[in-house]
Amino acid sequence: MKTSKSNLPDREPAIVAQKPINNPSRRESSGNSLSRFTGGSNSTLAQFFERAINKLQHIQVTRRCVYCHQSHSGHTAICEHCLSLIPQFDYHKVEGDLLNRPEIFKLFPRAKFDRLLAITPHQYPLNLWLTQLKYTGSLTYLTHINALITEHLKRLAKVSSSSVVAPDYLVPVPIFIKKWQRRGFNQSYLIAQQLARYFDMPVDNDVIFRVKQNVAQVNQSGAQRRKNLRDNFELNSDVDLRGQSIWLVDDVITTGSTLNEISRLLKAAGVKTITAYALTISL
Fold this sequence. Notes:
Elements: E1 15-17, H1 35-38, H2 45-57, E2 61-64, E3 71-72, H3 80-85, H4 102-105, E4 115-121, H5 126-136, H6 139-159, E5 169-172, H7 177-183, H8 187-199, E6 208-210, H9 222-229, E7 233-235, E8 245-253, H10 257-268, E9 273-281
Parallel strand pairs: 4-9, 5-8, 8-9
Antiparallel strand pairs: 1-2, 2-3, 6-7
């Protein structure tokens, strides 16, 4: 199975130690020159490294929030204050599946995917980050998005471990080649890359292809979207999908027509379960 790699470099938040590591004791011993580095003639190299590791574990780390750029001592790229300001779906009462929320299920009554995961409604700041990423190519916003995806998966795992089980295939929703050439990337692929880092698995960019591009879907009804999307996608006949579990990754879910059309093809190919994963849902 072929895998694809993004040309965009990974960016990690700066990590700065608040205080230097104290040098290990360097007491002299005439009988053992190694004692200068291990703290005494009777010390062993293993004991020296054990002491060094213990010191490293107590170092406080300062990160710079990728959103507000303020220093914080948390374990995430986004500080807790900024995280608290971002509205996120609560998965505690829906068993790790947004389709169990009645108001969301009503939006997708004919869903052909089995489960739905998303971070937030399509509103600030995610709507701004996505717009800037798609139309300016700013890596700053990709860094914000990646940090939020990682935090979302960690929080989801605390609610339902079954919601973050690695799939057999991690598949981004494809875009038409001409749009890819104009934009230079597929935003769904970039999102899938962050999921791939979390699951430690490749992005499967060759499972499905977009072979046709219709007019823009904005302001069109669900029925119009479904009609326009027919015959827009093709599955890779060389990939055996029977009995497999797939995460289908998109940036924004509006009517679900695109995900449904792809899911229809995947189910016809024998896929067992499909989880639709998106950053936002347009409610």
